[in-house]
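Progress note, project year one: complex with zinc ion.
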Amino acid sequence: MVRHIQFPSNKYLVRHLITTAPRHSYHSATYYERPGAETMDQKGYISCDFVVDIDADHIPTSCRHNHDYAICKACGAMFQGEKPLKCSECESTKFDKISWICDECLDVSKKQVFNLVENFLLKEFSIPLEDINLYFSGHRGYHVHLKTKEFLDLDQDARREISDYVTGEGFSFKIWDYRKIQNNMMGFSIEDPGWAGKIAKELYNILIQGEPRIIEVFEKPIYGKKLNAVLINNLISNRQYLINQISNKRKIWQVAGLSDKTWIRIFEILRDRIKADIDVVVSIDLHRLIRLEGSLHGKTGFKVMKIKYEDLKDFDPLKDALSFPDNQENTLDIEITAPISPKIRIGSTNYGPYNKGEKLKLPLNTALFLLCKDVAKLK
Amino acid sequence: MEIIQKYNLPKQLFLQFPWLNESSKVLFDDLNISEEKMGSISLIEMVQFLFKEYDELLERIKQFFRNIIQSKEEFSTPTGDVIHLAMYPVLQIIISVSGNRILGNALTNTYAKHCQLELSKYNAKKDFPNKILQNIFSNLGISCTVDEHIFKNGIKYPFQMDFPSYLRVSTKIRNDSWKLINRYFESGKIYLIRHDVVLLLREFVRQKTLPDYRQINKELSSQMEKIPEITDILDEISKMMATHKKRFESSIFSEGETIGSELFPPCIKAILYRVIHGENLSHNERLAIAFFYLNTNHSVEETVDIFRTSPDFDEKIARYQTEFAAGSGKGKKYSMYNCVKLKSYHICRDDDPNFGDKLCRDGAKKRNGEIVPIQNPAKDFIFWKKVELNRLHRSQIVDQLESSDESEITKKKEEDSK
Ligand code: SF4
Ligand SMILES: [Zn+2]
Ligand SMILES: [Zn+2]
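Model obtained:
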């Protein structure tokens, strides 16, 4: 990796990119007095964009089990889904990974962007929409850059606080008055500001959707352990009572059989549904490298591009971020080299799955994608 | 009360609080010096000038140091006159020249406590509207608005601070209740009661009054030491410090240890560094360090010793808390906070320029190449640090072997060519 390069103007940057044609291009999200200096000390920190990274890579999705593979480096055995601890054929622990994308995971990250912007940035942080810069990362996620003065000047501690807020980290039940008072369990009111209110609202929304929804939410939480069936049943049989309490803004949520420990687990499950699932490490790093807008992502060949927030709803990465015109005539001859090349939609056509050794004539965008994913070679 | 119209604050406040942005102007007025003139004279000249103008200054400064060296972090000299203002820059310079961080932290504590105390006095007398607190903040460049009609859950929240201003200060208090997520936060504003605001101001004063140790270079410092009053004060400081050896000389890093400090994680090193330099720790920091010590085979005695350099050290309390953490009596021994907790308390220092550690930032690399994140400072950090040091040790041995091989070979070659 070549780092610490400084360009006097855009022209020089473009010339550099043309002559070196790097597979991945990044720029620093930080402003330095001397960006070309070798060490951070010499660079002279000025300020840094507040960057939020949302990527399906670190959000649990179920589609992963269908389209990701691990291939044993030693014997070539193939495993669908998550990488196993060791190869069941030869016991080796080293694997090559094929990690794919599909509409489902692209959608998950899009939903999280909406969650972040609507429920946190616009509403609670009161950030004007025009200050929110949104980019498609070129792969399976999005970057949000906040560049106004108040964000640029935040130190690392302050950045962590904001990330913690958005991800629901550090919520103190004690401080928010959740406790037992004379055998009554005190919950939260939907009128409480911030997270206490969010938790109350989320619980209410799930309860009014009825039994199947309650089971779904607490049996298959996004993170961590499920709630056991007896406890879920307790919740279901007290459903009407809790709905009444919450809608009447009463804070007493007394359900026999639900201990404070259980309630806290319930709140955690709710929290994980409410939070914006961002990559915290990116937001608190003051020396982060970010993909260059307008460059191509080296693992997909898709464009890293700025998107207007109002266009996000209809944005289709597999169509709108393609680097070349979607022209079926313009093709490339390739050969599949990986044991499997899972199905992918490019534009409005589905391609694959393909097997090792298949020789194909594919439209440019599709061929480029498979080459970048390292599952094919040029013929 | 005389109000300084330009800043909308009573003159009295500027005399009491030298850390306000325009307090120095009040001093210059008294000295009948224009701001430009003040800007044009050197630090040395300024110090000499102040000692010449205010006879009492020397004695007040000595008194200040007598107090803080005896862990009395309060002023026993008048705090509402121009000499109080003149004292401030001179104290800053002396402490920078001495380079002593224990004194520096004692100074910030003194000003911070004084600010809180005075503000609560005004509050008790009820002659100090919230508006004035707002003006103090705005003088310091922090936006804080007042609306007397805001109630939440039946409690009045007259102050509203925008989140960047709030976070600038609150994150340094390192306590759960100051986390944004545990606050009334709406439309970009944090709603605060008067008591919150006073505590935030106190923390802000602590940060603002911290001496800038880099401001004084060698040359300047030797020139300063030629000013008789300064030499006089420095002499007296070192005499007084000698009588309080335990506080000023303790060094935890070199004492016989159960585990070597080279195995300490960044978070713990940073807390130790601060406590050695006389900073008061937050409740969570205290617990973190106590849990860490107790979970790495240190005795209660050794653990209590850590806190001895704290200005607010109270043997009885420290011992009680440590024994509690150690689970003496019937309680169980508490395990160390994990990294997730420490991160949320802003205690993690993985990225710190002085204490940071790659192990914490990038995780540990297992033999099979798998990366595992560090999760607990007292457990896996120490384990992986040992592994890392062993690996390093081994590779150094290999290096040595290789280089000795090389010299053997060159020697042979030379012999052959003879
Ligand atoms: S990662 Fe853990 S051990 Fe390392 S500094 Fe942070 S809290 Fe301490
Ligand atoms: Zn195998
Ligand atoms: Zn998918």
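The pocket of zinc ion (ligand 2) is lined by residues A 72, 74-75, 77, 87, 89-90, 92 (CB under 6 Å).
Chain A is about 35% helix and 20% strand.
No further modelling is planned for this target in the current period.
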